[in-house]
User: Fold these one by one.
Assistant:
Number 1:
Amino acid sequence: MIWNKNLRPSLVKKEIGASNAYLMFIGSLLVATGYGATFVLNRHYKSFGGNELDTGTVLLAAMVGTFASVSIVGWYSRKVGAANLASIGAVFLAIGFLILASSSEVSLIGAIGGCAIGIGWGAFYLAAPMALSQRVTNEGRSYWFMRFAAFQMAGIGFSPFVAELFLDNLGLSTTEFFYYVSLSCLGASFLLLAFEKREPLQRDTRAIEPWVKSLPRILASPARFPIVMVALGACVFSGVMTYQSSLVEGTGLFASTFFLTYAVTVVFARWTLAELISRLPSSGTVPALLVAMVLGTTLIFWFEFGVAAQVLAAALLGLGYGLVYPLIQAQAVNDISDPADQNAALTWFVFSYFIGVFGFPLLGGWIIVAFGKTALISVVVLLGSIECLFALLRNRSVLTSQALSKT
């Protein structure tokens, strides 16, 4: 078997071949183009008379869909196989974008498509890292999550950039772009199925994983802080990315510039800094990265000063949010003392993320329509600052727990 030394097989519980790992990584890149394409929804609805509220309504339907699929993955991941469920999620994403592509007006059809997208992205977003987490050690989890997240962010970030490029320069419609996204998601489904087949795990005969009952134990542990933090960060991320086309209106800037800068920054940082970041104590790294994220969102106030402000804002957001997400994801799992509750912690972490990433755009759309884009920027800066505070509270909670365990 051929090994890639960069994948550090010494950190895994069982030998994962490089080719098998890349089945997961490339599949994640392809299916992530589906979530990235939601950043084009605002442009899609504006093309036939809709506005930010219509975009937010579709994404709210997506949030409802995620609740259903995340619950199913949380219950049945060990019985069915997490990668198999991620593959099914990719199919639902394809269906959702086919539904959106078939609609050229604001109607209930859009909400149905949004719900299908939510079901698909929710299943993938929990099941794919769960499939990886089940195959690695606690020590290697941050490293592997960082590498996985690099491919995932490549799909998320480059998808809207490619869309803007094609729409502005090649005359492609958003409908046609959504058809291509559907094909990408179907391709991802086959790769994720192949990963599960080539990296099998012993199945759990229990029909239902009791992740809901684990909530009291999770809330009593320091893991409660990263679970709240991910929702706050997701609000910042979705607010800035979903309405980037609105934020650049009247400035002469292009949304594609922000998407490209963000994607390149995140992918480069996650790939080149993964090993270094995984070795540093997250208690210090997480607050520092969140400060960078807040600075990046603050710079959006000065978009009128030109492309330099836009590029710097995107780079700081990419460096901050892009690197901090896999770190707090690992914190949410590692802060649980009982390994039996780790899957449950990851499930609640993803639940919290979807509240922010799909729930906030409706509020953000209303803020823009009612009060303007300056108000939206102010809100996301505030939410990012609150996340910084929670990072410090988590550090204090961990120190307290460690002190109690020694007494």
Number 2:
Amino acid sequence: MSVPRVDVVTIFPDYLAPLDLSLIGKARTSGLVDLRVHDLREHAHDRHRTVDDSPFGGGAGMVMRPDVWERAIEATASHRRSGAEGDGDGVDEGGTDGRALVVLVPTPSGRPLTQAFAQELADELGAGDRVRAVVACGRYEGIDARLVPALRERSDVDRVVEFSLGDFVLNGGEVAALALLEAVVRLLPGVLGNPESVVEESFSHEAVLEYPVFTRPARWEDREVPPVLLSGDHGAVARWRRAQSLTRTVQRRPELLARLDGLDAVDLATLAAAGVVPGRHGRLIGPVTVRRAVAGEGALVADLAATTFALACPDETTMADIRAHVAAHLSPRAFEAHLASADDAVLLACDVGDVPLGYAVVRTGAPSADAPAHDGTGAELSKCYVLPRAQGSGVARALVAAAVRHARAAGADHLWLGVNARNAAAIAFYTRAGFAVVGERTYRVGEVDHHDHVMVKDLAPGVAD
């Protein structure tokens, strides 16, 4: 079987000197990976060794020439090694490497470099006989855009992968090449002394971050190692580490949670303690944040309203009446009016990534005609709705808590609402939240009268939420 091979092409070969160090350096010396660095300028044909030119259409900076890059990539097929190419041992093996090329091009617009991507490439290279890789480190304004499609049409190229370290810009591709090789080479067969080292690392086994690690001394600057790690109870240690991984992921990379599956009861309890619970359909929800909607988000709130309002209506309410009510009272224009009013607050409950899950409207100022007779200053919880997939996940509870905080901050000493008298689940929910029925009202949707309970929550100091 052939040794896994990677060629790196750059105008700054010395930038890649760290590849002689640490695990990668040992892997090269041991023959576990054939890793060579090439100078792009060796393939420029003019006396100045020019690899770039000004961009067509004008603009700042220079663009790297596709013809020079193609020649450089073609030349990597040679087994020849020299002081400028390869490891500097001066050995000329002759012949060419016939393996298909995987060309890797660092660019901010490329595919994100992930652990799965690194493992995929390591598996291919580790097989040895089918493909080898070439990393093309661009500089300046980048490589002429014709190079990638031209390479993809070549019979000796398996594929071209443009990849990115993240949403930021570097001066060139060398740092990205180093990061890619650090991630890939360590996964090649024999490179790590203990292959199990990668099993529990962040992103390796599943979409969770690695747990924190500790070593001697057990007590350092008044900071102690968690006692469970000194207990000798391997089962307890494993459970603690799993809980730490899940909690860290919630706190630092909650967007990864969508990729989790196979969670057991202990996992779910750990996540719940961190504010993440399954919604109605089992999808993890949270951690949930509640914020005020701002001007311009009326259409977003109206979409939530159009989806959720019908679910709260009695069965006899026709879709025609529901649509008419939504158009008249829950339109983008209606919500923009709420957003523009100093007396109204539109609250949005959002999942990770600011994805809306539900909304509420709190109205302060002058009481409406159907406000309950009650001493003091009241605020109305005019609307509070949650998407079906988030029901049962605590989103509604978070919205009500935020509504209470807003009402108190506005000087209200009680918060009231109307809820359909036949909606037993909603009535039970508001009762658990501290609301009590104080009266009745009629709320008309189209040609149907909805009979509501009017419920009030006391916001006086010392009253529990």
Number 3:
Amino acid sequence: MLWVVAVGFFMQTLDSTIVNTALPSMARSLGESPLRMQSVVIAYSLTMAVIIPASGWLADRFGTRTVFQAAIGLFVAGSLLCAYAPTLNFLVGARVVQGVGGAMLLPVGRLSVLRTFPREQYLQALSFVAIPGMIGPLIGPTLGGWLTQALSWHWIFLINVPVGLLGALATVRYMPNAKLSGIGRFDIAGYLLLAVAMLALSFSLDGLAGLGFQHATVLLLLIASMAALTAYGLHANRRKQPLFPLRLFRIHSFSVGLLGNLFARIGNGSMPFLIPLTLQVSLGYSPFDAGLMMLPVTAAGMASKRLATRLIQHHGYRRVLVSNTFVVGLVMAAFALITPQLPLWLLIPLLAVFGMVNSIQFTAMNTVTLKDLSGAGASSGNSMLSMVQMLSMSLAVTSAGALLATFQHRFGGDTAAVLPAFHATFVCMGLITCASAWIFMQLGRQEVAPALPVRHGEKEV
């Protein structure tokens, strides 16, 4: 069963990064501009953010095996549709189907492990299935670049089909169909309010640049998003068993960590989208070479895991998060120095430094958010964190795409304006990240971690 869940983790994390290096090739094939391809990434991550809150209840109601099998089926079907997409709009719709399946693979697989193994074996079991989840982002950009260059971009989706079919067959044989009896009714009203809030916010940010909305439409979408979020707060305060109880926000570390995750990731979450696009569109890198350039980011990130633990144990969450957030933002802004004349011996260390400080950021943000949760609040808090992480990924790419389009138009709109537009976007996204450090300043000065909790299986993008 562990291998089955590990395959699901691998498919989901691989597909979150494998697309980025193929975007320029997709654009040429579909007759689109490479700077307008962010919708391919947004559709997947935003769909995951919307579906994740319902995944736990579905597994409790219909059984982990049933839901996990359905998730693999949807993921494979979405992959096939993506591979044969004739237009950008069709591809975006197929990514939505793929995102519905991907949203259930991670939480339902983790839940199945939790209900199968006793508490004393749970940590080891989840550590095992988390390893393929870390390998996916490591090889995703390079594999995506190689497949795009050697075959075609369609194969970055077709490789999911045999893996998914084997996973579906193994699920039938090895995964128990664990259910919970007597579960309450799903909070459909709260779920719909949160879904409307997330969708309206994302569409409003992409409205002017990507979707061509008028200013009035964007304003109405922003108002609708705020209204839906406010309505959810009133609804959750009145309901006995809301989707996400508001009492979680009485835990100070959770509130600060969740908001910090949202706004800090809007900045640094844009980098896996921006870096391969810059290398290919402005510097003339091939898809495979652009994918190889992402290896220093992921390798340095994995190597710095223990460093993050030591830093937090010695200096506390507040000092580490405030200072590291500033450093992440400054390193992001430093990518504005990228030019065709920049030597590799300077570019590769810059990528590695970004991977290191970004990994420290993710580790610290995730642990400070979850460290004070217990009992029933741990499950709801973890689901809310997963939802916010995927939402912030969507908002990050949406914001970066909107800024790219705006700066390119302001700098002249021709090919010569592309690299300055990337430079300005890197600076803006870095400043957004630096500004989010103010959120972490709200942590207590005595917020230390003498024994840092280890959260295995958390997805880091």
